[in-house]
Amino acid sequence: MPARPNPDISPLAFVALSLAAFGSGISQRVADPLLPRFASDFGVSLGEASWIVTIFTLGYGFNQLCFGPLGDRFGKYRVIAWACVACSLATLLCALAPGYQMLLAARLVAGAMLAAIIPLAMAWIGDVVPYEERQPVLARFLIGQILGVSVGQMLGGLAADYLGWRVPFFLLAAGFVAVTVLLFSMQRRLPARALVVSAAEGHALQRMFREFALVLRKPWARVVTITVFLEGAFLFGAFAFIATHLHQTHGLSLSAAGTVVMLFGFGGFLFATTSRQFVLHFGETGLALWGGIAMFVSLLAIALMPTWWWSAPACFVAGLGFYMLHNTLQTNATQMAPERRGAAVAAFAFCFFTGQSAGLALAGAATESIGTRGIIVVGAVGVLIVALAFARLKARQSRDGVV
Question: Could you give the dihedral angle defined by the CA atoms of residues 218, 219, 224 and 228, in that order, rounded to the nearest 10 degrees?
Answer without folding.
Answer: 100
